[in-house]
Specification:
CATH architecture: Beta Barrel
Shape: globular
Number of helices: 6
Order of helices and strands: EHEHEEEHHEEEHH
CATH class: Mainly Beta
Number of domains: 1
Distance between the termini: 41 Å
Largest sheet: 8 strands, antiparallel, barrel
Strand order of the largest sheet: 1-5-4-3-2-6-7-8
CATH superfamily: Hypothetical Protein Pfu-838710-001
Structural class: alpha+beta
Amino acid sequence: MPVEQELKYKLKQKDYRRLRDYLKPRMLRIERHTNYYFDTSHLELREDGIGLRIRMLDRTKAILTLKYKKKTTEVFEGYRSRFEFETQIPLKNAKDIIAGKKAIGSLNSDPIKRLKKLVIGDTVDHLELLGSLKNQRILFRFGKHHTLELDRSNMFDKTFYELEIETEHPKETDKAVRRLLKAQEIEIKPGNRSKLGQFVREWKKRLAAA
C-alpha cells in the first residue's frame, strides 16, 4: 500500500522569508492549494487516526485524499508515516460536495471505498465539511532526489509557516535538512502536527468559544 513518509519543520515568518530567498535559484514552481477537511461533528475519523480531504489545486484540479496511521519503527520528532490514497475527482463533483449539494460518501472512488472498510457503521453517511485551509507552496530542488516544500498556510485568522519534505530515508534526510537550516542560522523546530491536526485544534477552539 502507498505510504507517505514526511519530515516537517516549523518556521517563524522571518526564517520562512530567509529560506525562501536563499533557495530561490533552486525553485521549481509555486502551487496554491485549498484543503477542505471532512469528518463527523464528533470527529470520529480524527479519533481513529484518519484524515479525509479534498484539495483544490490552483482552482483547476481536485484531489481526494485519505490518510491513516501506519505503525513504524522510525520514531523521532518531526517524522510522520501514514498510508495515503488519493485520486483526482471531477471538478464539478468537488464543488458540489464543498457547497453541500452532494455527499462525499457518495463518490465511487478508491479513497471512499477504503474508508468504508476502515470505519464502523454509518460513519461515512454523517461526514460533513468542517472548514478549509489555504496554502501557498513553493517547491525547490534539494539534492539529487528530493523536493523541499516551503508552505505559508492560512486558516481562520492565523498564518503559519512550515518546511516539509517527503523521503524514503528519513534519518539521513533529516540530517541534511538540519545542516541547511543551521547554515542559514534558522532555529530547528520539528513539527509534530499535520496541517489537519493544526486545523482541528483551531476548529475546537472556535467551537468551544461559540
